[in-house]
Amino acid sequence: xxxxxxxxxxxxxxxxxxxxxxxxxxxxxxxxxxxxxxxxxxxxxxxxxxxxxxxxxxxxxxxxxxxxxxxxxxxxxxxxxxxxxxxxxxxxxxxxxxxxxxxxxxxxxxxxxxxxxxxxxxxxxxxxxxxxxxxxxxxxxxxxxxxxxxxxxxxxxxxxxxxxxxxxxxxxxxxxxxxxxxxxxxxxxxxxxxxxxxxxxxxxxxxxxxxxxxxxxxxxxxxxxxxxxxxxxxxxxxxxxxxxxxxxxxxxxxxxxxxxxxxxxxxxxxxxxxxxxxxxxxxxxxxxxxxxxxxxxxxxxxxxxxxxxxxxxxxxxxxxxxxxxxxxxxxxxxxxxxxxxxxxxxxxxxxxxxxxxxxxxxxxxxxxxxxxxxxxxxxxxxxxxxxxxxxxxxxxxxxxxxxxxxxxxxxxxxxxxxxxxxxxxxxxxxxxxxxxxxxxxxxxxxxxxxxxxxxxxxxxxxxxxxxxxxxxxxxxxxxxxxxxxxxxxxxxxxxxxxxxxxxxxxxxxxxxxxxxxxxxxxxxxxxxxxxxxxxxxxxxxxxxxxxxxxxxxxxxxxxxxxxxxxxxxxxxxxxxxxxxxxxxxxxxxxxxxxxxxxxxxxxxxxxxxxxxxxxxxxxxxxxxxxxxxxxxxxxxxxxxxxxxxxxxxxxxxxxxxxxxxxxxxxxxxxxxxxxxxxxxxxxxxxxxxxxxxxxxxxxxxxxxxxxxxxxx
Length: 712
Fold this sequence. Notes:
About 55% of the residues lie in helices and about 10% in strands. It is of the alpha+beta class. Helix 8 (about 300-315) runs antiparallel to helix 9, helix 14 (about 420-430) runs antiparallel to helix 15 (about 435-445) and helix 19 (about 485-495) runs antiparallel to helix 20. It starts with a strand and ends in a 16-residue tail after the last helix.
């Protein structure tokens, strides 16, 4: 038992209590808390925590940040005015409350180390591109930031800390001083006064003309604690603006930033400067935001702003927002090339975009991630996120078989980050080893940092549910991410299959509006056409299809257009369509043309679509032979089974009895073993009610497809 401040901590039960209050912690969070308590009041570095608790499971500083945020919430602590856990930027964390061990702790095997990589708060950014010649005369635009020292813990948190920002009249000398300089200076002053005034807890005043030589004295007379000095230089092609935030008490620089701006559009120039200054100061003058920025691994306020924007866009789950996220991650890395979490986010957003896009886009993303893996390797040699980027690049390129071997090796070696367990679980799910996959996802769900597969975001238990059971869970997820093109497609299929056509059509319209590549929407068209029966009617029409379509006015006649049937980015969808129709031979013709990213879909997504296939297709040896030919049949399944056995000493996961028997008998397991017979019977009844053709399958000639004439 440990007493930390007013809380009683029980490591054995992972609980904290204070009177009637009780908090439950995860085992990982409790381990970190005990480590901090054992070393209190010394600082424990980020590196030590990662080495001690995450070496085999995490590739990102985000894991530590997440646990510390959990501990702060449990204590009711605030980074801006901590009573329990204090962040020491670029050094680590320490418990500042009293610590009393009521039972002697185990001796500490390793003393904590603290490393300061650069001055606290410094975010000076070197401009990599060459600056043009600077005008001979350089005058200063001086902004005085006067902030009263933050209130002590004895004062009410609601009172807050008053900060005064004094903006001096800007002096400007350049090639066109009288017109351009005065215009820019006055515009900057007006913009800064207006925008800084909107920041919570700030009071903005303008220093009078003539105070430029006495800014330190003027600032101190205002009771200022900080001074922000700015220098503007104009050349023929651009402006250079340097900002420097000084702490007046000791004269140290706690923030420095350079801005390089084109001279072509003065209004845009002054707006950009104003926005950047306000963004930076909104963080540096706020303890909580500044602490969060350092926790995320950067001391550059603008890099942090871009990172936060990227995080928002990444979770919107559509092509436009993923591209926006990539742009902001790249900007964050440009501003702070050692910002590891920005690289991790880039890997995630890039992989999302690749999986939901055509091969050309996926190849572009794969090359991008490889480039950033090399960049990070130069900045942080040996950092695990370099391997995360390389894995994401392979995944974006569709290298599923290669990655599966890499991931199993990393798991066996004992140094696999959490996303590896989740990604391998995804492969097991695609190979129809559902029970085993479930256990791998459970290993990945505890304190997981960044993820590199969009499918990992979809809870395994929901993805493996029967369609009628999954709808409420998908709706809840869609409430949180209304533009998620993947979930919209799943809802189209599930709702149509169980007869909710009005809702299925609604979700289809939503998906079509956000799916700019159109590939997932095309697949939803196939589902809706099949459920309505039009797909089967048009397929039977053969050469008379156009004439019949004119009479029936089907909703998606373009599904049978030759351009769509031959489109290289639609071969996976067309193969699925032919399997729904029961035509294994024609499906094989499409599936043999798959590009790399579609082959990845074959190994991870096809199993979920089988709810739409005729029973006789699922049971047909010709279908199993097609999967084997394409690399995702019996041999692939058995390879994964053997790897599960090899990983057992590390994971503790065993093959189920059904899998062991199938492996011994050299037999392909094709059915979701998590469903009981009642669920399978209900699925058949739904298909029989909505689309009888799916139950029986169209009688189309060919190997494994007896009777009837081919329509294709």
